[in-house]
Amino acid sequence: MAKLINNSLSAKTPIKKVAVIGAGTMGAGIAGQVANAGVEVWLLDLPSSGDSVNALAERGFKRLQNVNSPGLMSNEAGQFIHCGNTEDDFEQLADCDWIAEAVVERLDIKQALYQRIDAITGPDTIVTSNTSTIPISLLTQGMPQAFCERFAITHFFNPVRFMRLLELVRGEHTRDEVIDTLDQFCESNLGKGVVVCEDTPGFLGNRVGVFAIQCALHTAFKLGLSPTEADVLFGRPMGIPKTGVFGLYDLIGIDLMADVAKSLESILPAGDEFHQYAQPIPLMTQMVDNGQTGNKGGQGFYRDTESGREALNLITGVYKPTTRLQLPLAQKAEAEGVAALLDDDSVYGRFAWQVLSSTLNYAAALIPEIGSNILPIDDAMKLGYNWIYGPFELLDQIGAQRVVERMQQEDRKVAPILLLAAKKQGFYQVIEQQLCSLDQCGEYVAIERPPGMLRFSELRQTLTPEYSNAKASWFVHDNAAIVEFHSKANALDKESMDVIRHALEHAQNRQLRGVVLHNDAQHFSCGVNLTAFRGFFETEDYTGMDNFLHHFQQTMHAINKCPLPVIAAPAGMSIGGGFEVVLAADHVIGHANSVMGLVEASVGVVPGGGGCKEYLYRWYEVLGDIKAAAWKAFMIVGYGWTAKSPLEATEQAMLYPEDQYMMNRDRLLSEALSQLDKVKKAKPRKPLPMAGEETYREMMDWLFEAEDQEKITQHDVAVGSELARIFTGGKVKANTMMSEQDLYDAERESFLRLARSSDTQARIVSMLDLGSPIRN
Q: What letters, b where the CB count within 10 A reaches 16 and e where it falls short, cover 389-413?
């Protein structure tokens, strides 16, 4: 199995046993992440009168095993969870190091629980609440000061395993060592980006995030934009997730989001700007009454039908067919940056300006109420809401002075720190090769992260690229080369390969320690650029397609042959061509939530960058039987199966047992740099004995039978037959030897044959235009 790296900080953590009280979505999620870290945890809820007294806790545990969004990294992690109830198992709390309360948001219930906890635990047991609405002063009202000193709020975001933000809130009496211990454990062991907050309404993430959502929602209604129009703007063009405001409402639940807005409205002071965007919209109230609550109800602002996706007309309340909107302004902003949105005086530009200026100024106005520094707000929005850039990073991209001047022309109140930034050099500056952020006094303060934490998005601002193009760059740091992809979804093309080649060659010439493949984007790489392949087949340039594939393969081979160690440090998705890059590296240090796999079959092609070759070698090394290895590779690649964690990836020979992973993705780069001197180069691949024609025929029989049973489609058979040919050698005798280059050539031959197929072309076009491939 890939090995979990425990850094020196986590080894000092005194938290060895945890209890979570409340086995709902959040409580079960917290328990699951503690178990993922290899720490014993008791999951307690109220006793049940049915067959099992622990039914509620057991239900929470089962929720963690959801195959679509698993809260556990592996079956082994589940062994650290003990299910119980708050009557029979309450004594388990006596020797816990940390007790996390995640019960219903009722003050009386929480306070009664704290009384019981205080009676059974000692002075060193830390107690926290997962609340996001009740102040600590109320939670601990009437409790002894000794209890208040060991109490804090740990506000996790849902789903706990995958959302990086943890808001850590201290009370008036909370001891420093309690905050330090929680900060250390949750950052190092649980992999969270910990933001220490003041005890203010909504803390940071929801305070800004819900404001942005509500502002976008009300502005869209006011300007008469359709859900599709608003969502294409309130997404990647603004540097935030592509879900959009209406899509996000559907995802979370229209009724639940309405409750969130109402709850935040109830705890914010009367003069807060949030109130102008908090009022319920009559159409949405009617939708909830009709059961149109979003994805969970089958319909909301959008719904999926047999004939395709439909969007709600916000005036008539009638659903109409919709497709992915290609809005030139949105495309321009994605290509040129968020500032391009503000150069447009159409209704789309007015929407963008109203949402951006209001949200960014609102975030700025929270200084100094929530603290003196802007960094926690930017961190909260990136870690808790998956924004690509925080509010102050966006203001730097747009230009603080530009925003201030336009707001003043409109006679709007501007936040004091935004006025300061407009007079100075923005919110962030590199001073003496140190990235600094602006504080409320107008001073630039050096950004300091815990030892071992290194975000490349921050480091790169202090570096100059050695070679760069539109798709990738490489830099030198710590006497090592760092290669970064930075295209849309980090899709790979010839320019990406050119940067890798340049880095490999010059790292050798300059005798650097090695090469690290890493980036700070949401995903390491979502594969090869399908748009480029669409261009190839639409112009019938199959020679150009073959040249690209050959260039990609030889770049992967160059990674193998490079005398310097090459480490891949991926996070997020590494799929398709992105995973072929990971496979080519000598060593992998991945994130605990890394998703890996060769998924090309879904769009009607085969892995063509050495993925088939490498995967067959790996299974042969594991099994020692070429026929069994061929079948394993054939089934997994044919179904486009993806591993949802490094542990799953190791089980499926996608990673070596020697490969490693970390719970916190912000530690990947530092760890990879530190291990370059320890990595051994992979040995050259010897020719493989192929399984041959008999196994090939068996695979073809399996494909035809699966088609007859309607498990796969006609074109799946075509793709599967090419995979069978690659993995067995096709119509050759058993044990015929094939070299790496022979397998590279077989991949390209199959890829090109499939790419000429109208069925494959239809899948690729559907994937690009509609977001998913058709099943043909």
A: bbbbbbbbebebbebbeebeeeeee
- Omega cis (within 30) before 237: no
Using DSSP, state whether 732 is helix, strand or coil: coil
User: In terms of domains, do 398 and 492 share one?
Assistant: no
Give the span between the Cα atoms of 19 and 82, in whole angstroms: 9
Round to whole Å and give the CA distance between 144 and 147.
5
Provide the token pair at 663.
């719970």
Residue 672: CB atoms within 10 Å: 29
Domain with residue 463: its CATH number is 3.90.226.10
Give the containing element (helix H, strand E) for 149: helix 145-149
Has residue 712 been placed in a domain? no
Helix ranges, 424-540 (H): 456-459, 494-509, 530-538
In order of 8, 234, 308, 491, 717, the CA distances from 774 in angstroms are: 49, 27, 11, 21, 15
| DSSP label of 521 | S
Domain total in the chain: 3
pLDDT band of residue 10 (cuts 50, 70, 90) is very low
Q: Say if CB 755 and CB 533 are below 8 A apart.
A: yes
On whether both 429 and 517 belong to a single domain, the answer is: no
The predicted-structure confidence for 136-169, as pLDDT tens digits, reads as follows 999 999 999 999 999 999 999 999 999 999 999 9
**E-only strand ranges, 78-150:** 81-85, 98-101, 126-129
CA–CA gap between residue 736 and residue 332 (Å, rounded): 53
Q: Give the mean pLDDT of the chain.
A: 95
Instruction: Verify that 386 and 484 share a domain, yes or no.
Output: no
Structure tokens at 194: 């910990």
**CATH at residue 175:** 3.40.50.720
For residue 730, is it within any domain? Answer: no
Last residue of a domain, one of 396, 411, 438: 438
Kindly write down the DSSP assignment for every residue of 37-74, as one continuous string: TT-EEEEEE---SSS-TTHHHHHHHHHTT-SSS-SSSS
Three-class SS state of 101: strand
Phi, psi of 179 (to 5 degrees): -65, -40
Contacts of 272 (CB under 8 A, 6+ apart): none
Is 392 strand, coil or helix?
A: helix
Taking Cα atoms as reference points, which of 602, 607, 621 lies closest to residue 685? 621
Same domain, residue pair 535 and 670: yes
Return the closest-CA partner of residue 392 out of 331, 423, 437, 353: 437
Is 462 a member of any domain?
yes
Residues 279 and 385 in one domain: yes
pLDDT in tens, 340-351: 999 899 999 999
Residue 535 lies in a domain: yes
- Same domain assignment for residues 83 and 176: yes
Residue whose tokens read 């009638």: 318
Question: Is residue 771 classed as helix, strand or coil in its secondary structure?
Answer: coil
Concatenated DSSP letters of 250-274: HHH-HHHHHHHHHHHHHHS-TT-GG
Lowest mean pLDDT across 99-113, 306-320, 480-494, 618-632: 306-320
Full domain range(s) for residue 239: 205-438
Q: Which of 411, 438, 465 is the last residue of a domain?
A: 438
Q: Write down the pTM of the prediction.
A: 0.93
Residues 309 and 182 in one domain: no
HSE at residue 250, side-chain half, CA atoms within 13 A, is: 21
Same domain (yes/no): 73, 175: yes
Mean pLDDT, to the nearest integer, of 638-658?
96
CATH of the domain at 282: 1.10.1040.50
